[in-house]
Design a protein that fits this description.
membrane, mainly alpha, 12 helices, ABC2_TM_bact-type, Transport permease protein
Length: 277
């Protein structure tokens, strides 16, 4: 029949064969992605509404704590809720995608032990859930800009670049932790902690101007998420939002290096997954 293909499993297959199999199984990627999205809100009372309530509730709490209690100022001319939600939008994409990828092998353990397919499909399919949540939060942000009568900057044309960087960064870190999570199950307990701490280590609820001129500024800019969040905010809110291009250079270089190393590590350990599940 048209459209069918045969995959021959053999020892010592080349790297080229692996990526070819990955492409031939692209329909499975689509099926897994749809399943992950439907399962996320299946049998929940509010369903997709959780994707609206979570960022709104988080934004309100952050505005209250950082703006009203801690008296931290936003970038000049930018309403504090917009500054927070813009950072929260891209951070949520990273954190959700990173978490889903890190748990992807264990979640699909029944498939790993029974069916052959390139295991990289499982982490890739997990990205769909994070991206859907991102689109919902981004829609909320656009509505909030109308409420505050704050125009979207023309810099938005660069937005896909920062979304791509977020994808590369989350996939790089996620693949590494996905392998560790199969071998050491307590990694699953560590991941939510890292996400929680990471949110406060990144300029989600505050501006990176707080790090300007400090002794730790150069170390602060080594955090790949700093350049991504500041750049994403700059794309939406314009030149009023603080953005140091130097942080973007380190972000791009570190993210690509981490992704390449994680892909190599994942490929080397891929065949051992079934032994630990």
């Amino acid at each position: 029949m048209a459209g069918q293909h045969t995959i021959t499993i053999k020892a010592g297959g080349s790297e080229k064969d692996y990526w070819k199999d990955l492409w031939l199984n692209r329909q499975l990627l689509w099926i897994l992605s749809k399943r992950d999205i439907s399962v996320r809100y299946k049998q929940t009372l509010l369903g997709v509404a959780w994707s609206v309530l979570r960022p709104l509730a988080t934004m309100i709490v952050m505005v209250f704590v950082f703006s009203y209690l801690a008296k931290i100022k936003s970038d000049p001319g930018i309403p504090y809720p917009l500054m927070v939600l813009s950072g929260l939008t891209i951070w949520t994409f990273f954190s959700n995608t990173f978490t889903q990828i890190s748990n992807s092998i264990l979640i699909n353990s029944n498939l790993v032990s029974k069916v052959y397919f390139p295991r990289l499909l499982m982490p890739l399919s997990s990205i769909a859930v994070g991206f859907v949540d991102f689109l919902i939060t981004f829609g909320i942000f656009l509505l909030l800009t109308l409420f505050f009568k704050h125009p979207i900057s023309w810099h938005i044309v660069f937005l896909p670049c920062f979304i791509l960087l977020t994808f590369i960064t989350s996939l790089g870190f996620g693949l590494f932790f996905a392998v560790l999570n199969v071998r050491f199950r307590d990694i699953g307990q560590l991941i939510p902690f890292l996400v929680q701490v990471g949110m406060y280590a990144c300029p989600v609820a505050y501006s990176s101007t707080l790090a300007q001129g400090t002794w730790f500024e150069k170390y602060y800019n080594l955090n790949p998420l700093v350049g991504i969040i500041d750049g994403f905010r700059w794309c939406l809110l314009g030149d009023q939002a603080y953005f140091n291009p130097q942080s973007l250079y380190s972000t791009a270089v570190l993210s690509i290096i981490i992704l390449i190393l994680s892909l190599i590590y994942f490929r080397r350990k891929e065949n051992t997954f079934v032994d630990h599940i």
